């Protein structure tokens, strides 16, 4: 009979996230991971498999605590307000990132996804979830006439996804409020000037 785990999976995954987030997949050693997670090598392998499998688990944990939490919370708001709040929070988080770690998902999209089909598929799934949030919000906004009828929800959702990726990359090099807000402002302006009779809610 397998012995029960003597550690909190959430706690050790949080430690793995922090480790991978600092150094990336390639530069993080198994020894460093084991030390950070408070596990010995055999326990780490028994619990999570190899480093790559642990990285996939860490990405899922990161997504649950950041991206999915934000989407779940903001989708309770009116759709245009939700999109604006999403980018406001993204800018605030980027400016508060003193170590310029950026976003683990975006970092992985640049570092790993082009060279690893399986992890690339995982990253594509996360990006699809983000695009889906924008698309659902825009569909709701258009249905309630809170945005101009000329706004194409599919194309605009992809535009906002591209903006998100660009903002996260730019913030690692130049974490300046004027730069980040200047990137976001023209895109969000597409949602201004609603049709007559717009309700602003969904």
Brief descriptors of the model:
202 residues; mainly alpha; Arc Repressor Mutant, subunit A; Tetracycline Repressor, domain 2; 2 domains; 10 helices; 71% helix; 0% strand; elongated
What is the compact description of this entry?
The chain contains ten helices and no strands. By secondary structure, it is mainly α. The model has no long low-confidence stretch (mean pLDDT 91).
- Domains, number: 2
* Overall geometry: elongated
Strand content: under 5%
Q: What is the CA-atom radius of gyration, in angstroms?
A: 19 Å
Portion of residues within helices: over 70%
Helix-strand makeup class: mainly alpha
Mean pLDDT across residues: 91
- Number-wise, the strands total 0
Q: Topology as H/E string?
A: HHHHHHHHHH
Low-confidence stretches: none
CATH topology of the largest domain: Tetracycline Repressor, domain 2
**Alpha carbon gap, first and last residue:** 53 Å
In CATH's first tier, which class of the largest domain applies? Mainly Alpha
**CATH homology superfamily name of the largest domain:** Tetracycline Repressor, domain 2
- Characterize the biggest β-sheet: none
Total count of helical runs of at least 4 residues: 10
CATH second-level architecture of the largest domain: Orthogonal Bundle
